[in-house]
From TrEMBL:
<dbReference type="GO" id="GO:0008253">
    <property type="term" value="F:5'-nucleotidase activity"/>
</dbReference>
<dbReference type="InterPro" id="IPR011951">
    <property type="entry name" value="HAD-SF_hydro_IA_YjjG/PynA"/>
</dbReference>
<keyword id="KW-0378">Hydrolase</keyword>
<dbReference type="InterPro" id="IPR006439">
    <property type="entry name" value="HAD-SF_hydro_IA"/>
</dbReference>
<dbReference type="InterPro" id="IPR023198">
    <property type="entry name" value="PGP-like_dom2"/>
</dbReference>
<protein>
    <submittedName>
        <fullName>Putative hydrolase of the HAD superfamily</fullName>
    </submittedName>
</protein>
<dbReference type="InterPro" id="IPR052550">
    <property type="entry name" value="Pyrimidine_5'-ntase_YjjG"/>
</dbReference>
<dbReference type="InterPro" id="IPR041492">
    <property type="entry name" value="HAD_2"/>
</dbReference>
<dbReference type="InterPro" id="IPR036412">
    <property type="entry name" value="HAD-like_sf"/>
</dbReference>
<dbReference type="Pfam" id="PF13419">
    <property type="entry name" value="HAD_2"/>
</dbReference>
<dbReference type="InterPro" id="IPR023214">
    <property type="entry name" value="HAD_sf"/>
</dbReference>
Amino acid sequence: MKTYQHLFFDLDHTLWDYDRNVQESLSELFLHYKLENLGVLSPQHFIDAFYAVNFKLWAAYDKGELQKEELRTTRFPRIFAHAGVADALIPEEFEIDFMHRTSTKPHLFPHTIEILDYLKPKYKLYVITNGFDESQAKKMNSSGLNDYFELVITSETTGHKKPDPRIFHYALEQAGASKENSLMIGDNPISDIKGAHGAGIDQVFFNPLGKSVDIIPTYTISHLRELEGIL
Ligand SMILES: [Mg+2]
């Protein structure tokens, strides 16, 4: 077994519970803006519309087909259209309100803090994320993650998104780490696992829902506490 010294974590869906934080925010927005009066059937209907649209937009963003500003300005118009609401009825500042609520939600995956407390004295910890600087910083802050990590490397700062090996090379350089003594932990088979593999870094695939995937990661876990058996 290799001796790892540097651990690189993905943030969304790995430590920060994206689904819970987003769904809670969308449910609040449904009530706050009385979306049932605009024709949205229920909070769940709104959440379903969000997932149907947002996933495709992020996939386009990941491929470089869409820029950040375009993603932000077209997201909710498309989501509302998907939910059957006319453009003119969309509340102003909806995107800003959504971003603020979501990025200040504190929910983490079970055992995140316990495992970070376990790892922190033994390893140097970092985050590598494809999210945007400002929102990722707010998420780290509101969920109490900041003190655990030496560095947060975002695709926005780096100019390259996972799985591009350049973001991993940049991270290693910033950390003063080598690919041999580093380990990437993340939930995304492509961006985290294939990405790290392509950069020569061992990987832990965090797969809480037991999705079937066509990758062979160095390790696979379904709970974060299983890292104690590896590290
Ligand atoms: Mg993720």
